[in-house]
Amino acid sequence: MTSTSQQYRFVSAAKLPTRKGEFTIHAFVEDSGTEHVALSYGSWQPSDVVPIRIHSECLTGDALFSTRCDCGFQLERAMENIVAHGYGVLLYLRQEGRGIGLINKIRAYHLQDSGMDTVEANEHLGFDADLRTYDMCKLMLDKLDVHNVELMTNNPRKTAALKDLGINVVSRKPIDHGITNDNKHYIRTKTEKLGHAFDPHLFKD
Ligand SMILES: Nc1nc2c(ncn2[C@@H]2O[C@H](COP(=O)(O)OP(=O)(O)OP(=O)(O)O)[C@@H](O)[C@H]2O)c(=O)[nH]1
Ligand SMILES: [Zn+2]
After folding, report:
1. CA–CA separation, 105 vs 132, rounded Å?
2. Residue minimizing CA distance to atom 9 of ligand 1
3. pTM of the prediction?
4. CA angle 165, 159, 9 (to 5 degrees)
5. Are the CB atoms for 27 and 156 separated by under 8 Å?
6. Are strands 88-93 and 35-41 parallel, antiparallel or unpaired?
7. What stretches of 87-154 adopt beta strand conformation (E)?
8. PANTHER family given for it (predicted)?
9. Is residue 195 part of a domain?
10. How far is CA 10 from CA 36, 76, 137, 182, in A?
11. pLDDT tens by residue, 125-182
């Protein structure tokens, strides 16, 4: 499959037992060398509505238990939802720091420690607020025979991007697990500046 600038291909798949259940991990690579994975659980028919999560890499939240953001909580909850449903897919996209990379995200954190919000920090470093693209999702979902989805997200850009790719987004499931005192401000900024669909009472001081 092609996008404006990248080609993607499927490489291999293998069993992935996890603390949440036994998934299968599917490996994909872009021409640029960027590697993405999809985790699938259970089985479905091509006409079924499949619960999916499109998760953007966050080393600090997903692997290091950071509470600066809600990523780790959402990752866990998405996998739990999929297992509870009996089938589903998690696309784990290597777009760390909303596409600016890990080192730049830490630079952005440093600026946030001095009072900037997440959007201001990105802009101060010379980046747009969100550099992510979702073109690779089409190949990944086609490969898994997923055409109709219930999307677990609060981010309206993800819903729009999937629709633009021709994927039938039947419904959206909010995923607002993991709001803590450490990340309330971050959630507020996502809601007020990036259009995420959180209920304001969740991040009220
Ligand atoms: N640039 C930057 N990226 C961050 C920051 N905190 C978390 N991230 C990255 O943000 C991405 C997750 O994006 P979010 O805006 O939290 O959530 P989302 O994926 O847009 O939306 P949901 O589907 O609702 O979770 C991950 O790639 C994180 O690494 C930050 O302060 N600055
Ligand atoms: Zn995060």
Report:
1. 14
2. 97
3. 0.93
4. 40
5. no
6. antiparallel
7. 88-93, 148-152
8. 3,4-DIHYDROXY-2-BUTANONE 4-PHOSPHATE SYNTHASE (PTHR21327:SF18), GTP CYCLOHYDROLASE II-RELATED (PTHR21327)
9. yes
10. 10, 25, 12, 38
11. 999 999 999 999 999 999 999 999 999 999 999 999 999 999 999 999 998 777 888 8
Task: Copy the structure tokens of residue 104.
Answer: 């730049």
Q: How far apart are CA 100 and CA 107, in angstroms?
A: 10
Q: Of the candidates 69, 40, 43, which has an alpha carbon nearest to the alpha carbon of residue 189?
A: 69
Q: Annotation-wise, does 118 bind a ligand?
A: yes
Domain-located, residue 107: no
**Domain enclosing residue 147, as ranges:** 8-95+132-203
User: Atom of ligand 1 at shortest distance to CA of 102?
Assistant: 29
CATH number of domain containing 47: 3.40.50.10990
Sole residue written with tokens 């729009």: 160
Total number of domains in the chain: 1
Tokens of 126: 């010379």
Question: What residues have a C-beta under 5 A from ligand 2, the ion?
Answer: 58, 61, 69, 71
pLDDT 10s digits, 77-121: 999 999 999 999 999 999 999 999 999 999 999 999 999 999 999
Token pair of 34 as six digits: 């960027």
In a domain, 116, yes or no: no
The reply to whether 123 falls in a domain is no
Residue 153 is assigned to a ligand binding site: yes
